[in-house]
Design brief:
- By secondary structure, this protein is of the alpha+beta class.
- The chain contains 11 helices and 24 strands.
- Helix 1 runs antiparallel to helix 3.
- The chain is elongated.
- It starts with 10 loop residues before the first helix and ends with a helix.
- Helices cover 30% and strands 27% of the residues.
- The strands form 5 sheets. Strands 1, 2, 3, 6, 7, 9, 20, 21 and 22 form a 9-stranded mixed beta sheet that branches. An 8-stranded antiparallel beta sheet has the order 13-14-12-11-17-18-10-19.
């Protein structure tokens, strides 16, 4: 019997704790007290299990087994993106339906976080005395720039080997660079467009956007004809403040914007076909010609790819225009062999031509770990032991804690190919059988690192 199979004896208790953890609306920046509550819950359960733990910063904690030898880490986060729209179940609650587990955070990343804790419990309760120190590290601002791990590693050493279950199986040895930018106008000069709002997270494709227009009857007829001929899903409402147009799209993670339908881009494409720049403002005009409903950066002069990590992607995540404010936020994922400074210079050149200001909100350089490293060998052995198959090695546009580990960590699981988890989308879910298969792989991997 594999050691990883021992996690299955905790299935019922794990699901009960998962229901509680998913019920905490831990959205960094919007509900910081809930983020603190989620971390406190993990520490309370660690105490119940007799594990050593430490609150390192207000956004990071670790729970530990053993001491001495190599420091081996498993990193996960308890913060989530906002629920968004169009759920068929209650977002902040565990729902089981048709063999699937639903809830915001079940796949990204609360499910894996709780499994990490239960793996430590299993190792302790089965009397495993490893040669190394095994540390489960938890943060609460991964979705908003990973300040949690920046603070954590100011006080704690980097692990010698580590993985984060916050991606797909097999093993992610390379992560694209992530460049998040704020584009703003010094003033809102639009004459017809009074409001435009879309998105709550820069790293998600917005599924809802709306615009308010002080329009004439002729304009409204033109807009309706354009809407009928276009690719968007639009709703027209007449209000005391003018014409409101609502755009509905499909959410997706910013690392795969091509899998979503950007409600903001489609709405901007509609209004820019009906009005000139003086009517809608410089920011909307820039978004129309520089993004043009694309996700590959072609109109920005940034279409590129490499053989290691694939193509550059661009996502328009947030638009906020009202009063004197006119700003938009972009998320760019660029290939591991590309210089991020070049990407920034090119984007700035296009935006500044329109008189717009560009500020860097967040920049993570790419990650690359050698495919034959001891860490990848151990994780490969754990995966093969549970599944009977060799894991594939792949690159991603996603950003995980692995890029905070100085080349000593990778992303490993928990998602299996063919399982539509809807990460950062409505009805986030995971196949229940796959959830516990990941738990077996994770425990097997932690057991092997503990004894490596």
């Amino acid at each position: 019997m594999l050691f990883g199979d021992k996690i299955l004896q905790y299935k019922d208790e794990l699901l009960k704790d998962l229901d509680y953890l998913l019920g905490i609306e831990s959205i960094d920046g919007a509900k910081n007290e809930e983020c603190e509550r989620a971390l406190a819950f993990l520490l309370r359960r660690a105490q119940d299990f007799g594990l050593d733990y430490e609150m390192v910063t207000d956004q990071s904690v670790h729970i530990q087994l053993g001491e001495g030898g190599k420091l081996c880490g498993v990193l996960s986060h308890v913060d989530v993106v906002p629920a968004g729209n169009n759920w068929s179940v209650i977002p902040f609650k565990l729902t089981e339906r048709d063999g699937r587990l639903y809830g915001r955070g079940i796949a990204d990343d609360k499910g894996a976080a709780l499994i990490n804790l239960y793996c430590l419990r299993a190792l302790k309760e089965h009397g495993v005395e490893g040669k190394n120190t095994l540390r489960a590290i938890f943060g609460s601002s991964e979705e908003t720039g990973m300040r949690d791990m920046a603070g954590y590693f100011e006080k704690m050493p980097l692990p010698d080997m580590a993985f984060t279950p916050d991606s797909d199986y097999g093993i992610c040895f390379a992560e694209k660079g992530i460049l998040q930018l704020r584009v703003s106008s010094p003033f809102n000069e639009a004459k017809v467009l009074s409001q435009f709002h879309a998105g709550k997270a820069v790293n998600a494709v917005p599924d809802l956007a709306y615009v308010m227009l002080d329009s004439s009857g002729y304009d409204e007829q033109l807009l309706m004809r354009l809407a009928d001929a276009g690719k968007g899903n639009f709703e027209f409402n007449y209000t005391i403040d003018g014409l409101m147009i609502i755009s509905r799209g499909k959410a997706s993670h910013a690392c795969e914007p091509q899998n979503g339908k950007n409600a903001a881009s489609l709405l901007i494409d509609l209004v820019t076909n009906a009005y000139d720049v003086h009517d809608i403002g410089q920011l909307c005009s820039f978004i129309d010609y520089a993004l043009n409903c694309e996700t590959n950066g072609r109109s920005l002069g940034l279409k590129m790819s490499d053989s290691v990590s694939g193509a550059l992607t661009v996502n328009l995540g947030i638009v906020h225009i009202e009063g004197d404010t006119a700003e938009a936020y972009f998320d760019i994922r660029y290939p591991v062999t590309v210089n991020g400074d070049f990407v920034l210079r090119q984007f700035k050149a296009v935006a500044e031509y329109s008189g717009l200001k560009v500020d860097v909100v967040h920049h993570d350089r790419p990650l690359y770990v050698e495919k034959d490293s001891p860490l990848i060998r151990e994780l490969s052995a754990a995966y093969e032991a549970v599944t009977g198959e060799q894991p594939t090695l792949y690159a991603t546009g996603g950003g995980t804690y692995a890029r905070r580990l100085g080349g000593k960590g990778v992303a490993f699981g928990p998602h299996f190919s063919g399982d539509p988890i809807n990460m950062h989308n409505a009805d986030e879910s995971i196949d229940k059988e796959n959830f516990f298969k990941h738990a077996q792989i994770c425990l097997e991997a932690m057991y092997r690192l503990f004894n490596a």
